[in-house]
Amino acid sequence: MTVWLHIVAIVLLASLGGALWRVWRGRSQADRMMAAQLIGTSGVAVLIVLAALQDWTLLVVAFALALLAALAAVGFVTSQSPDGAGDPEEAHPPKGWRDRGRNG
Amino acid sequence: MADLATYLLTGLGLVFFIAGTVGLVRFPDQFSRLHALTKGDNLGLGFIALGVAFQAESWAQLAMLALIWVLALLAAGTVAQLVARAALTEQDKP
Amino acid sequence: MSVALDITLCALVLGVGWATVAGHGVFRAVIFFITYGLLLAIVWARLGAYDVALAEAAISAGLTGVLLLAAHGRLRRLNASQEVPLHLNLPAAVVAVGIAAGLGWAWFALPAPTAPDLSQALPQSGVGNPVTAVLLNFRAWDTLLESVILLAALLGLWMLARDHAWDKPLGLPYHARPGGVLASFGRVLPPIGLIFGVYLVWAGADTTGGAFQGGTVLAAVCLVTIMAGVLHAPRVEQAAWRAALVLGPGVFVLSGIAGAVFAQGFLALPPALAKPAIVTIEAALTVSIAVTLVLLVIGPPDEGEQDA
């Protein structure tokens, strides 16, 4: 079983390496962000396998990674919006967003 | 018996992970790539977690594994929607 | 088999490290750096340093990525150059290679350190996690100064605010579509993160976790609520938030003085009182670390780039 779990971890890392190619190549920023997302999911899987191999305490690390998996992507879409503080679902930014205060 | 389940399920998980990566590398446009990795990877993670769960020693570990998968699904669903939307508005721009 | 796993991991770390500094394009470098943090967390996990792996995972996934992507977004809105100069920066390269060579030399030349045997001192520290014992008891001095450094960094950042923006809320005015995916995410994630963060602080006394890891997780979920427009960022003048910033260092210094008056010396903890004292200091530190990290990431008071 130990040997098999090592193989699983290595194949997961290799698949993670494949996603790195997409980060290098692009072309769009969304592509790179999604590749980073895939790498995050693979990282969670690797940590789960390592938990079974080494120490179940590692599940806490995997949990932290899964909890915060979406943060970078949320930061990405927010920073890509016209004023750097919006939500891509607000299809057209509200009129006069430059002058709008917090309570506007 | 438990070991056999681990072999099968983690193996199946690997297949989905590899499929997700191949999709990310080979698919022609960014929306199909988004689709490939969001579905492939999280199914893969589910199978890996399920496979590893057969080696778990306590109920707390099983609960952790299940929660990790649920959180990953929540993150993946959110990210897929938001990134696709951001890419769409990006395309509208001249 | 485990050697093959470690070699794969090392190759990935080196490859991603190289890809971060090579090539041009700020955005690509940022994404590679986020990946680099994730791989480092796996490396720490392999090395058995679970507390460090947890801190690395929380910092890189939760905070650094958001910070760097926000910086990239601002560069883009200001129409600043997105290109990294490709020519070799010779002085920087010489310094970097020199430091690497010096560290490599020191690794082989210096005698292996004879660490004091923790297992004998651990029962007197009041906690079961050796990392927490070192951080908050045996080497509490370092941790106290680190908590002050975080505060100093925030003050330095606030000095970048413009005069007319000083009484405005910190950071950008975030907003989201009501009932949309982002707004819902900003409401679903924080309760889970809150429980997990508090669990990490509590469990840190005896197993993996601690004030810094818990504080980082709390900061990250607080950041989500702010970016999803659910919570509004505070203003500099709000006294409660300032109190939260100094709570940790304040409680730490007070317990240090109490040690000087009633026990053997500054920051000394009598074994009988060590556990409650450490848990109190950790709880206060967690609040301060979480608030400081959130305010560091969202930045100084800002009204957006209307004058850009």
From TrEMBL, chain A:
<keyword id="KW-0472">Membrane</keyword>
<feature type="transmembrane region" description="Helical">
    <location>
        <begin position="6"/>
        <end position="24"/>
    </location>
</feature>
<keyword id="KW-0812">Transmembrane</keyword>
<feature type="transmembrane region" description="Helical">
    <location>
        <begin position="59"/>
        <end position="77"/>
    </location>
</feature>
<protein>
    <submittedName>
        <fullName>Multicomponent Na+:H+ antiporter subunit F</fullName>
    </submittedName>
</protein>
<feature type="compositionally biased region" description="Basic and acidic residues">
    <location>
        <begin position="89"/>
        <end position="104"/>
    </location>
</feature>
<feature type="region of interest" description="Disordered">
    <location>
        <begin position="80"/>
        <end position="104"/>
    </location>
</feature>
<keyword id="KW-1133">Transmembrane helix</keyword>
<feature type="transmembrane region" description="Helical">
    <location>
        <begin position="36"/>
        <end position="53"/>
    </location>
</feature>
UniProtKB/TrEMBL annotation, chain B:
<dbReference type="Pfam" id="PF03334">
    <property type="entry name" value="PhaG_MnhG_YufB"/>
</dbReference>
<keyword id="KW-0812">Transmembrane</keyword>
<dbReference type="GO" id="GO:0015385">
    <property type="term" value="F:sodium:proton antiporter activity"/>
</dbReference>
<protein>
    <submittedName>
        <fullName>Multicomponent Na+:H+ antiporter subunit G</fullName>
    </submittedName>
</protein>
<feature type="transmembrane region" description="Helical">
    <location>
        <begin position="6"/>
        <end position="25"/>
    </location>
</feature>
<keyword id="KW-0472">Membrane</keyword>
<feature type="transmembrane region" description="Helical">
    <location>
        <begin position="62"/>
        <end position="84"/>
    </location>
</feature>
<keyword id="KW-1133">Transmembrane helix</keyword>
<dbReference type="InterPro" id="IPR005133">
    <property type="entry name" value="PhaG_MnhG_YufB"/>
</dbReference>
From TrEMBL, chain C:
<protein>
    <submittedName>
        <fullName>Multisubunit Na+/H+ antiporter MnhB subunit</fullName>
    </submittedName>
</protein>
<feature type="transmembrane region" description="Helical">
    <location>
        <begin position="181"/>
        <end position="202"/>
    </location>
</feature>
<dbReference type="Pfam" id="PF13244">
    <property type="entry name" value="MbhD"/>
</dbReference>
<dbReference type="InterPro" id="IPR007182">
    <property type="entry name" value="MnhB"/>
</dbReference>
<feature type="transmembrane region" description="Helical">
    <location>
        <begin position="90"/>
        <end position="110"/>
    </location>
</feature>
<feature type="transmembrane region" description="Helical">
    <location>
        <begin position="52"/>
        <end position="70"/>
    </location>
</feature>
<keyword id="KW-1003">Cell membrane</keyword>
<comment type="similarity">
    <text>Belongs to the CPA3 antiporters (TC 2.A.63) subunit B family.</text>
</comment>
<feature type="transmembrane region" description="Helical">
    <location>
        <begin position="279"/>
        <end position="298"/>
    </location>
</feature>
<keyword id="KW-0812">Transmembrane</keyword>
<feature type="domain" description="Na+/H+ antiporter MnhB subunit-related protein">
    <location>
        <begin position="182"/>
        <end position="297"/>
    </location>
</feature>
<feature type="transmembrane region" description="Helical">
    <location>
        <begin position="239"/>
        <end position="267"/>
    </location>
</feature>
<feature type="transmembrane region" description="Helical">
    <location>
        <begin position="29"/>
        <end position="45"/>
    </location>
</feature>
<dbReference type="Pfam" id="PF04039">
    <property type="entry name" value="MnhB"/>
</dbReference>
<dbReference type="InterPro" id="IPR042106">
    <property type="entry name" value="Nuo/plastoQ_OxRdtase_6_NuoJ"/>
</dbReference>
